[in-house]
Write a structure and sequence with these properties.
The protein has one domain: Pyruvate-ferredoxin oxidoreductase, PFOR, domain III (Pyruvate-ferredoxin Oxidoreductase, domain 3, 3-Layer(aba) Sandwich), CATH 3.40.920. The chain is 41% helix and 19% strand.
Length: 197
């Protein structure tokens, strides 16, 4: 099978690592080779967390600049920061709801203009699927299910060799029972949101 490379970027506390775990489990359920690595910045809350997943026969989990087939960004400025991993054929799935760093809150930094940020991403990649994932997570019944909303959108792209059913099964086996119903709804809302983009 053709190797596919995925980068997921988020801010600590947004659920990047759980999203990676769900995708890894879905790959195992589907007998698809997968390799994963994670970079934890100041991940307690507010620092960068990056996951790299390679599906197929890739030898390494290192995704060099320009090698990502798909980039999923849980936070708009983090999506922009990871743009160097993309190329003209990359598809980007991004949440548009910002989570500004504390430097912006204390007046020591400026958050980038969202429209300009999206234009920069569109200019360098094949396709940008951008929507307010936080709103969809709230609709699903749990604002913390942003990660699952974005997984739904990712699977809708058809880039990864994973079916929606395998990912939903992985959600059932890897997420807490108390959040299962809202997570499955979040997945469906993200899947539908990406269909129109």
């Amino acid at each position: 099978m053709e190797t596919k490379r995925l980068i997921i970027v988020a801010v600590g506390g947004q659920g990047n690592l759980l999203a990676s775990k769900v995708l890894g489990e879905a790959a195992l359920l589907s007998n698809i080779p997968v390799r994963m690595s994670e970079i934890h910045g100041m991940a307690q809350r507010g620092g960068v967390v990056e996951s790299a997943l390679v599906f197929g026969e890739g030898e390494s989990t290192i995704i060099s600049d320009g090698e990502a087939d798909v980039l999923v960004g849980f936070e708009p400025s983090e999506t922009l920061r990871a743009l160097n991993k993309c190329n003209a054929g990359t598809v980007v799935v991004s949440n548009t709801s910002p989570l500004p760093p504390f430097t912006v809150a204390i007046g020591k930094g400026v958050y980038p203009d969202l429209a300009e940020l999206q234009q920069l991403i569109k200019a360098k990649t094949a396709r940008l699927i951008a929507f307010n994932g936080i709103e969809l997570a709230k609709q699903a019944g749990n604002v913390m299910s942003l990660n699952i909303v974005l997984l739904g959108a990712l699977i809708q792209t058809g880039i990864l060799p994973l079916s929606a059913e395998s990912v939903k099964e992985a959600i059932r086996t890897t997420t807490k029972q108390a959040f299962l119903e809202s997570n499955l709804k979040a997945f469906e809302l993200g899947f539908q949101a990406a269909a129109g983009k």
